[in-house]
Write a structure and sequence with these properties.
The chain crosses the membrane at residues 89-108, 155-173, 179-196, 203-222, 254-273, 285-302, 308-329, 336-357. The chain is an alpha+beta fold and 797 residues long. The strands form four sheets. Strands 14, 15, 16, 17, 18, 19, 20, 21 and 22 form a nine-stranded mixed sheet that branches. The chain is elongated, with a radius of gyration of 29 Å.
């Protein structure tokens, strides 16, 4: 009696028929084939633009640049379109898609029928949606391909061609994203173990040489120097280690519980598979070690930065690990346990039910790849991307900067480096070119040296880009101090500030630290002479429980709360290694607009006191009880008293005309350059009650046109405001010399209601009278209300 399709198969069951494997390969190839994304200015799009630019400039990794991605990073599937590299990128995607397909097909053909169906569904859907799932999934199934080809290589010399493809693919992915490189190295060792187990030392040596040769071919073929490779490894390991310390984001408890459940289930089934393997020899141990390490890498990549984008790719990767173990071994769990696990994974990870009843499954995942391939072959794809690229270049053209910079070298401080590439500037990036990523002492010092050495760029395009609610001045903290000491603002355009290096630039002063003092978590500390620029160093450590949590999940975080001289309270996340190195505490600059206000003497942003508290309630026990704090002069100074130029006023007060005479309270400019703008990414002023702007136009008849709104990204907080009964809004008043105020208009903002316009057709201002725009009381709880336009014009007669 023949086995039913869902029953475990024996070792003598034939592999999948060639036509099923070919069908899977064709569908999978079309699903994973990518043609690049349209040009954009966001954080991820900007680093992708730098990857392509660096490839054409033959920059040396480990010396000129360091990042999560390596010299093949320009081939990341979601990389943005860059005209000079388009043909190379498209060819690379075709070759990579072929390699992905070969490795996944090797696993497909070694599975039972039900497992093939699940592999096909999860692989096609998840790998199309998330490139990280594709890269790490390829690394998982490369073990299956390796094991199969090693067995075949004794009798079939052609199997060495397949082994060469596996080595080339794994090293390509390792030089594309550093996360895969340790798996590639481990795979090389596993291959040698498998061949030595068969008493084939010459074949084992040959495999190692094939692996090393493919690595050298890719490294040297991309313009890299062999002498730089050790520095690349050392620097990339530092980036990876710092990532786990600095980039952690907590997930919702339910999601974390689901992830832990899936992790425990996968580990249990892996151990059961290995326990039932016969014989349990060196082969089984090597395969188990590789799969366990791949599972650990997938877990850390997904649940270190545990936002919804990252956590969802753990579930299909865990499924891949299980499927790989079943493709490698003879044992199958009975009673449909494996099928139930895989169905759960498929439903949870990729929304399988929705996609199966939606035309998007066919249109996006199959026709989408076929359309892209047809457009590439037909020559129309470049034209589509080129039109979008030129539109973005025109949108972010910086003619004022171009006139000032000429052909001089320029860096971009922040995370929107694409703006320099689009404008054709002589871009001179610091080694860790996006500020948020310089999160270890060694990485920070590399960037600081970039601004202090003889080859320091004469110009810097400045737009701070804090992420994850970090203290803004702590991102690339040492480089920021070097910029504030040695560069001065000369122009502003489209949300950016152009800084020019002083002729008398000076090196970083040796810090003269005040004696350290011990702090307790939650203890408020007064800052002596907070009006003078100061650097703060905080030395705090995790206890044993905290270190275990950091190893298995993510590092717990502290946050710093500061009070400014005007009464504002701010709370920001701390990065432990940055805090130990030191960062600018006062002035408390949150962005480039605040820098201009401080530089031109409009606001001191002086910190009067501070305290350090756990980011999450109840996590204080994970830290050692005492914190050592030390203060030092920052060595930075504002400019000489002068009126702020008109272009800079437009950045500090976007959409406001005339500029205010005075401001009070929490007024924050969210510029386009830092990626935190309001609706439609226009620059706006966020005003938190009791913030106010004072205007003193000449006496006369005026018309006022204004526009207010609530930021889209903060609507979840806005909904909580609605539950609390808060009504965010703004008030326009006419005041006199005695302080008496007359309300001219009020505008309430509806949660989720979009922008609201105000138009006062005519009102008069007498001598001594002023106009005041103030945030309504509801803004203190919502903290999301903005003003995008406030324009006074003479009223029509």
């Amino acid at each position: 009696m023949s086995k039913r399709w869902w029953e475990p198969r024996g070792t003598d069951e034939p592999a999948a028929a060639w036509y099923w494997t070919a069908l899977f390969a064709a569908v999978f190839f079309l699903a994973v084939l990518r043609s690049g994304a349209p040009a954009a200015l966001a954080l991820d799009d900007s680093w992708a633009a730098v990857m392509g630019w660096a490839r054409l400039q033959d920059l040396r990794w480990g010396k000129d640049l360091l990042f999560t991605y390596g010299p093949l990073g320009y081939l990341f599937p979601r990389a943005t379109y860059y005209p000079p590299l388009f043909d190379t990128f498209l060819l690379g995607q075709l070759l990579l898609a072929s390699g992905y397909t070969f490795i996944f097909a090797c696993a497909f053909r070694r599975l039972a029928t039900a497992e093939r169906i699940l592999l096909a569904l999860i692989a096609v859907l998840a790998c199309r949606r998330q490139p990280d799932t594709l890269l790490l999934g390829t690394a998982v199934f490369a073990l299956v391909a390796l094991d199969d080809l090693v067995r075949r290589s004794r009798a079939a010399p052609w199997a060495w061609l397949g082994l060469g493809v596996v080595a080339l693919m794994m090293n390509a992915l390792g030089l594309l994203k550093f996360t895969v490189l340790p798996l590639s190295v481990l795979l090389c060792g596993v291959g040698a173990v498998l061949l030595l187990r068969e008493r084939r030392p010459v074949a084992a040596l040959t495999w190692v040489l094939v692996w090393l040769g493919s690595l050298a071919l890719l490294w040297l073929g991309h313009g890299q120097s062999a002498a730089d490779f050790p520095g690349y490894l050392q620097g990339s390991l530092e980036v990876a280690a710092g990532y786990s310390i600095s980039m952690g984001v907590d997930s919702k408890p339910a999601i974390q519980a689901a992830g832990l459940l899936m992790l425990a289930l996968t580990i249990a089934l892996l151990l059961a598979w290995w326990r039932r393997e016969t014989p349990r020899d060196l082969r089984g141990l090597a395969l188990l070690a590789y799969l366990a390490f791949a599972l650990f890498v997938a877990w850390r990549n997904a649940f270190t930065r545990a936002d919804m984008w990252h956590v969802t790719f753990f579930f299909p990767l865990a499924a891949f690990v299980l499927l790989a173990s079943w493709a490698l071994g003879r044992w199958r769990p009975r009673r449909l346990i494996r099928y139930a696990c895989q169905v759960f994974v498929a439903l949870y990870a990729v929304g399988l039910v929705y996609l199966l009843v939606s035309p998007a499954l066919y249109r996006e995942y199959i026709l989408g790849g076929a359309d892209k391939l047809g457009a590439a072959v037909g020559g129309t794809l470049r034209g589509q991307h080129e039109a979008q690229y030129q539109a973005r270049r025109a949108e972010w053209d910086l003619p004022r900067f171009r006139q000032r910079i000429g052909n001089e070298r320029v860096d971009v401080f922040g995370c929107t480096q694409a703006v320099a590439i689009w404008n054709g500037f002589n871009y001179a990036p610091r080694p860790i070119f996006q500020s948020y990523s310089a999160y270890t002492p060694g990485l920070q010092r590399r960037n600081e040296a970039h601004y202090l050495g003889e080859r320091a760029p004469p110009f810097v395009i400045f737009a701070m880009c804090p992420i994850d609610a970090r203290l803004p001045a702590s991102d690339d903290a040492l480089a920021l101090l070097a910029v504030l000491r040695n560069y001065r603002p000369v122009a502003a355009e489209k949300g950016y500030v152009l800084l020019q290096r002083d002729a008398a630039a000076r090196p970083a002063p040796q810090p003269v630290l005040a004696p350290q003092r011990a702090l307790q978590l939650g203890e408020w500390v007064d800052v002596a002479d907070g009006a003078s620029p100061q650097v703060l160093q905080l030395d705090y450590r995790l206890n044993l429980a905290g270190r275990l949590r950091a190893l298995l999940l993510r590092e717990p975080m502290l946050k710093i709360e500061v009070q400014l001289a005007d009464g504002q309270l701010r709370s920001n996340r701390l990065v432990r290694q940055v805090a130990q190195t030191g960062f600018l505490l006062s002035p408390a600059l949150e962005n480039e607009a605040a820098y201009l206000r401080w530089y031109y003497g409009q606001d001191a942003y002086a910190v009067t006191r501070l305290r350090v508290v756990p980011e999450r309630e109840g996590q204080g026990w994970l830290f050692q009880p005492q914190i050592q704090a030390a203060f030092a002069p920052a060595g930075v100074a504002p400019g000489a008293a002068a009126d702020m130029p008109a272009d800079m006023l437009g950045l500090v007060y976007p959409g406001i005309n005339p500029p205010p005479l005075a401001r009070s309270g929490g007024v924050i400019t969210r510029g386009i350059g830092n990626g935190n703008a309001g609706d439609d990414e226009q620059p706006v002023l966020l005003m938190q009650a009791p913030a106010a702007l004072e205007f003193a136009p000449a006496p006369g008849e005026y018309r006022l046109q204004a526009e207010f709104g609530l930021r889209k990204k903060a609507r979840p907080e806005g909904r909580s405001c609605a539950k609390m009964g808060l009504e965010p809004g703004f008030r326009v008043e006419r005041t006199d010399a005695s302080g008496a105020a007359e309300v001219l208009a009020e505008q309430k903002l509806r949660i989720g209601g979009g922008a609201e316009k105000m138009d006062i057709a005519s009102f008069s201002l007498q001598p001594g009278q002023r106009l005041r725009l103030s945030a309504a009381d509801g803004n203190d709880g919502c903290r999301t209300a903005y003003v995008s336009r406030f324009v006074l014009t003479p009223a029509a007669p």
